[in-house]
Structure formats: C-alpha cells, structure tokens
Amino acid sequence: MPGPGDFRRAGALITHRASATGTDLYDGIVAILEEAISRRRMTALLRAVDSSYRIWIDQLRDERSRQMIRELIDDLAVTSDDPYVRHATAAIIAMRDQDRIRFTEILHEVNADMRPGGGRLIGALADIYASVLPELATPTGRETLRAWTIEAAKYDNGEA
C-alpha cells in the first residue's frame, strides 16, 4: 500500500508531468522513478499516482464526466494500439475494481514484456490521466499541484 513518501513522489510526478517539457520533464520523472526504485516502491508509486489522479477526477468532474472517463479507460484497454496504454488502462481497471489478482498479473506481464517496464507503465498511466485532466497543466492547476505536493511532503518521514 502507498505511504506518505509514495504520495509525495506521486505528487511530484504529477506536478512535473503538468509543468515540465523536454529534458526537464524527462530528468524530473527519471529522478522520481530512481528514488522509487532505490526504495523498492515502484508498485506503491503506481498505486499512489492512480489514487492521486482519482482524487483530482473526483474534485474536478461531476458524476456524468467520471462515468465517461471510466468508459474511455475501459475502451482504451481493448482498442489502443499502444501496448503501454493497454497495460496502463488494464492496471487502472484492476485498481478501480480492487482486483489484486489481475493487478499482479499485469505487473508480471509488464515486467516480462517491457524493459524498463515499471517506469513506462507509470508514465503511460500518468499520460492517460493527464489527457482527461488538462486543467492541471494551467498556471492555477500547476500551482495547486505544487502546494498539494508540498503538503504531502510534510507527512513523509522518509520510510517509504
């Protein structure tokens, strides 16, 4: 399960995804992933990124819009030509449905099929959510994300 450090890393990743471009985006996300890898927290980071984006969806979307986002994710899981998108949407669905067996199967598939699997899976998941929450990339959205990440960091005691 994600801990405070995982949510801090998730907030930083989401903020970076919304703010940075080019080399800054790549370098920032790589640093976040390297920290998660060194602490053996990649799965927890994946769960924290998913949970964090779900919070933003709940805050920024009405029920009808949330249903449309669920439908889009369900559709991408079977129609996307991109294997990273298919794996990421399958992981989103497994987490949404609290299907731990399917979630574990997806992680094994990603690790077997893709190198480096975990980072690409987290990146694809973030890209999917960012595409349905474009307002997070606005100046107000970025400032809100930065403040949210700073608040999450207050609870990170360095253990996770």
Description:
The protein is mainly alpha-helical and 160 residues long. Helix content is 80%, strand content 0%. The longest helix has 19 residues, at 42-60. It is globular, with a radius of gyration of 15 Å. The termini are close together. The mean pLDDT is 91.
Number of alpha- plus pi-helical segments: 8
Computed structural class: mainly alpha
What kind of sheet is the major sheet?
A: none
Terminal Cα span: 10 Å
Mean pLDDT figure: 91
Tally of DSSP β-strands: 0
What is the percentage of strand-forming residues? under 5%
Question: Shape from CA axes?
Answer: globular
Helix content: over 70%
Uncertain runs with pLDDT below 50, 5 residues or more?
none
What is the succession of H and E elements? HHHHHHHH
Radius of gyration: 15 Å
